[in-house]
Amino acid sequence: xxxxxxxxxxxxxxxxxxxxxxxxxxxxxxxxxxxxxxxxxxxxxxxxxxxxxxxxxxxxxxxxxxxxxxxxxxxxxxxxxxxxxxxxxxxxxxxxxxxxxxxxxxxxxxxxxxxxxxxxxxxxxxxxxxxxxxxxxxxxxxxxxxxxxxxxxxxxxxxxxxxxxxxxxxxxxxxxxxxxxxxxxxxxxxxxxxxxxxxxxxxxxxxxxx
Length: 210
What we know:
By secondary structure, this protein is mostly helical. The protein has a single domain, classed as Orthogonal Bundle (Helix Hairpins). The protein has helices at residues 4-7, 10-104, 111-205. Helix 2 runs antiparallel to helix 3 (111-205). The longest helix is centred in the N-terminal third of the chain and has 95 residues, at 10-104. Residues 34-68, 115-209 form a coiled coil. Keywords: Coiled coil.
């Protein structure tokens, strides 16, 4: 029969063996990289799930903080209104009692003394009104300061939540990119594997005679 060296040059046979050997190594490398990609994707999916859970917890805390701020604001306003109302009633009662006492003693009191006492009473009432007004203003300022602190805390928590959401988005994009790279590499390996199979079949179909 006709020998292989007569049908095909030796260099061609060497090149063919080299290509087959190279393709076999690529298949082994493909399997190894596929395994690494699977592990990496599982790790990224786990990280993404953990971040999403943490993001949900932060969102719940923010909603809870918002409710607390609203309740505190309402409570502060109620206390503020109650104090003003109580102090107003107290001043009115004190003034009324003093005027009644003056009426009872008017017959035994020097008119000038009564005028002086009434003036002192009016001055005292004016002083108490000013003091109550200042106290109410101070309480209102304290309430505003407390609300500002709570709002700043909420803004800080909101920024932290946004940063987590941004990180989740980036990790999601990275996961999608990794999946695309995996599928692209899988396609490339499949093409090379098909070429290897075709060349192997071609080699097996040759009638080699020595």
